[in-house]
Amino acid sequence: MELKIRHVSKDYGTFAALHDVSLDIRSGELVALLGPSGSGKTTLLRAIAGLETIDEGQIFFGGTDASRTSIQQRNVGFVFQHYALFRHMKVADNIAFGLRARDRSRRPHESEIARKVKELLELVQLPELGDRYPAQLSGGQRQRVALARALAIEPQVLLLDEPFGALDAQVRKDLRRWLRAIHEETGHTTVFVTHDQEEALELADRVAVLSKGELQQIGTPDDIYDRPATPFVYAFIGDSSFLPIEVRGGEAVLDRSVLPLGQLSAPDGQARLHVRPQDVVLRPTGEGVSGRVTLLRRTGAFRRADIEVGDARRRIEAQLPPELAITEGDEVGLHFNRFAVFPSDAPHSTAPN
Amino acid sequence: MSDAEIGRALTDRAYSQHRRPPRKRGRGTTFRKPSAIPGFGAALGFTWLYLAVVILVPLGAVVLWTGSLGPERLWQIASDARVGHALRLSFGLSLAAAAVNAVFGLIVAWALTRYDFPGRRLIDAAVDLPFALPTAVAGIALASIYAPNGWVGSIIPFKVAFTPAGIFVALVFIGLPFIVRTLQPVLADLDREVEEAAATLGASRAWALLKVVLPTLLPALLTGFALAFARAVGEYGSVIFIAGNIPYVSEIAPLLIVMRLEEFDYGSATAVATIMLALSFAILLFVNLVEAWSRKRLGHGR
């Protein structure tokens, strides 16, 4: 089922939880809503499910406007962060709940329900646990039961709120791969919320980045990581440093001298140059942007260097091969393989940190 | 660490080992496992002592006194028609009042916990009044408004005061706080997400209440039911004013006990008391077992 979100806004008093968010999700796609806490990602997910009313805008399930229909009519599978399993029911009864809750005319026969439950238990790889109570399961197992319960109603879209938030690191990794496999198998249009960028980039077909209730960018993991559309996305995804510069006639100016970065597309005025540590390459002094190495430390396979640039001694982080012969205090030249320049007064220019 | 420091550390260790030998375990405390939570012995000892002084000794005296009557006399008292009627009335109406309170107390607790409305705190405080009011005051107040010429009594087409219906009204009155107060914390802790999950799965509001919310409340509801019932069975003060106290019609068992005491017939009084005690204990034990079973299903048990 194709999902269209059109100009959705939602206020809590004076606080705008969602501000004019528009988003298209293609049928069968796996999309991540990524953002820091308070970015509105969970509010958007709950709005799709109907658990949250919206003040403005529309949400289309296929061709029909779902934004004015009830939660029950939307037929979405929702997996809650803390699973929200029915503690007094066995696992099998939890999964069967949505089928048994239907009114008589649409309710499948008990034998059909039992068959379906068995099938779903096999899909989530818990075939033996139908007779257990949720309290007798581990966190990862509960998560799987919650997913099976949501899938039982053959939902139009599958929504997951921080699906791995409450699990420990190893289980998280396994479940991530497993969820991807389930998605390939069932082909449901799936939206999940996460604050973990690694999870979003690894798992999703496309990632929607939100900040302060506004959609910053939607794109493939490659788009998001390599071609961030806003300073926020640049700073939020992966590591990056920035350098305040001035753009004059398409050239980057730092402390009254032109930086050898070539022609920029940014308009004249104050701006920020963003660069990721792995895109910084060291050159002999005199080439590129000159700076001084102030700190060197080993991080796993690489070396991290802090390099101070300009009169204001802004710090640029660089990721260097460990065999590179430099020491703290060395004067170096910097070349940026890839960078971005955003005007300082651009919308969304407030970056974290 | 320097040599001197290591030396000091070693002697410190040796010293402490010498001073504090490993604790000996398991002697004479077969059911006591080593635990991180201290004070088990003291707490259990105090519990037994307290229970003995406050509950077991007085009740034991009642049972002992009854035992001295001899089985023949005891059977004679127990099979007495008037005693039988009073007991049936007391237990029947107490169960009925507790059941009615379970339903309406649940609604009151639900409204007080789940919604915010003007006057909520006032109503919340008023729920406790039956606890605080001297029971005689409650009895007189109820009797006067439910009397045939009272506010409520004049509207209701049948007679309430001075009939078993009046007793029922008094028992409902004194039992309400037990249900409301036991349910409130559980209602406040209800996980909103569970109800939301039911809704996303297509369950109507009624279905979600019946299948998801009520089962979660059942243990607390049973606790409240047991407390309200226990209170109602033993209630005396408020009932005697509204009951009319007509033998074979509206005479409750506690009143019968008081009457026997006033006749200096201590044997009969304690006999009736013992029968009440045994019946109450059996009912409360049953309710507790059902409660433990439902609680275990919720995953609180081990």
From TrEMBL, chain A:
SMART domains from the UniProt entry: AAA
CDD domains in alphabetical order: ABC_CysA_sulfate_importer
The keyword Membrane is annotated on this UniProt entry: yes
Top-level lineage group: Bacteria
Keyword line: ATP-binding, Cell membrane, Membrane, Nucleotide-binding, Sulfate transport, Translocase, Transport
Domain ABC transporter: 3-237
Cellular component terms per the entry's GO annotation: ATP-binding cassette (ABC) transporter complex
GO MF term set: ABC-type sulfate transporter activity; ATP binding; ATP hydrolysis activity
Record keyword Iron present: no
Family indicated by similarity: Belongs to the ABC transporter superfamily.
Name listed for the protein in its UniProt record: Sulfate/molybdate ABC transporter ATP-binding protein
Species for this entry: Hansschlegelia quercus
